[in-house]
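Journal club prep — side note

Before the paper discussion, L.F. wants everyone to see what a predicted structure for a comparable chain looks like in token form. Sequence:
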Amino acid sequence: MHAWLCENPVGVDALTWKELPTPTPGPGEVLVEIAAASLNFPDLLIIQNKYQFKPPLPFVPGSEYAGTVRAVGPGVTNLQPGQPIACLSGTGGFGTHTLAPAERCIPLPAAFDLTDAAAFIMTYATSYHALIDRAALQPGETVLVLGAAGGVGTAAIQIAKHHGARVIAAASSADKCALAQRLGADATLDYSVHTAGGSFRDEIKRLTEGRGPDVIYDPVGGELAEPAFRSIAWRGRYLVVGFAAGPIPQLPLNLPLLKGASLVGVFWGDFARREPQANAAMLQTLAQWYLQGHIKPVIDRVLPMEQLPQAYALMASRRVMGKVVLRNAH
């Protein structure tokens, strides 16, 4: 097998494509032949030693992937060799094979495309958990999605629309706003035009007829967070999903008070660990929505697995719309 090995977490330049022994699965593990793996924001942080989870060195990055089970370890009864699966295990995806905990793999229907499956779990599970579980989104409510052209943003648009909400998609360029409209957004807000220090709040007010959005989905953080929160509707819910912009906002606590609003943390990974049955039911629902055509991952491009450094460069450039997927030749 081959894999991208991180022996020193100082960034992309420290990754090396190496031939390694193909491992044998231990108790509770499966050997996966990886068809495709997607690039997520935590995959960038983890090789810079900036993510909350710090795996022991050396490790193979790549949190999310799809492929075929080739062998199962002792005690594995829910999966079998030859079965297509998707997995989100935190590491191991950027290679040709990996060992994965069986409990973190979900069996896939034969009709589920493996390239789509590699770009599915993290973004759709995060967005469903955020909008449906944490925000209790209701049909007819208005959702403002920040970072709307990214992986979780595009998933949030599709889930909110399928749930009957009105969606305002905010993104950093006209092209990204156009993508959001193609996904079903009812209105868009280009914050390269309407900036945090300019007309951003005025535009939100105009698009919601002065009422403000009921739910704000924020995977971005940074300077947009405070003006967005100041625009929220009475009893609104502000979903703290992540901080792709870098800086973690410092919000004055009088803002939730004045609007009777809720500041809601979204940590899907810990939800999956603490509430595995609820998470499994959610993933089953999402898989059905995919097969029914209600949701589909937005894939910016597919690159050969050997071009992982180029994929990281694309992510760092913030030009990606949806997700980048790495595909193995086998």
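L.F.'s comment for the group: The CA atoms of residues 203 and 209 lie 10 Å apart. Keep this in mind when we get to the figures.
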